[in-house]
Specification:
It comes from Solanum commersonii (Commerson's wild potato). It holds the Pfam family Abhydrolase_6. The structure is a single chain. The protein has helices at residues 2-13, 29-39, 61-75, 84-87, 116-126, 142-145, 147-161, and strands at residues 21-27, 44-52, 102-108, 131-135. The protein is an alpha/beta fold and 162 residues long. The chain is globular, with a radius of gyration of 16 Å.
Length: 162
């Protein structure tokens, strides 16, 4: 994860002083853009969470992930997809930094990984973004199932917040 975060952090850090970007995180990439929001809030116009994890100042996904991990160890043998030492590190997201960046959550209603009626809605309820967009009939890999709709959605969000 540290290697995975490095290009995002370096490119965001290297932006000219007055330049602001639109960050898009998909799935676990929501954690990565959250870390960038905390570190560089003045360089981000809006963060878009596309069917993604969305931690926040009042929502600690580490605790949720720990509970899920404990349950999973009882049910199946877990296969780590990420470096858990980095993923589960308590990173404090502050309202003054992370919270100062506009956030949009894009719900994919046919997502069977982050089930729309369960996890995505729970994230939105417990860490409300500025706006919620819905892409109908889109699975978790929305960039494959509904690429045009995703592109249109991202362009609209960019025009509104940038």
């Amino acid at each position: 994860m540290a290697d995975y975060n490095e290009p995002l952090m370096e490119s965001t850090n290297s932006l000219p002083q007055q330049e602001r970007v639109v960050l898009v995180g998909h799935s676990m990439g929501g954690i990565n853009i959250s870390l960038a929001m905390e570190k560089f809030p003045h360089k981000i116009a809006v963060a878009v969470f596309v069917s993604a994890s969305m931690p926040g100042p009042d929502l600690n996904l580490v605790a949720v992930t720990q509970q899920d991990l404990t349950l999973a160890t009882y049910l199946v043998r877990p296969v780590p997809l990420f470096d858990e030492s980095v993923l589960l590190t308590n990173t404090t997201l502050l309202k003054e930094k992370y919270g100062s960046v506009h956030r949009v959550y894009v719900v994919c209603d046919k997502d069977r990984v982050l089930k729309e009626e369960q996890f995505q809605r729970w994230l939105i309820k417990n860490n409300p973004p500025d706006e919620v967009q819905m892409i109908h009939d889109a699975g978790h890999m929305v960039m494959f199932s509904k690429p045009r709709e995703l592109c249109s959605c991202l362009v609209m969000i960019s025009q509104k917040y940038h």
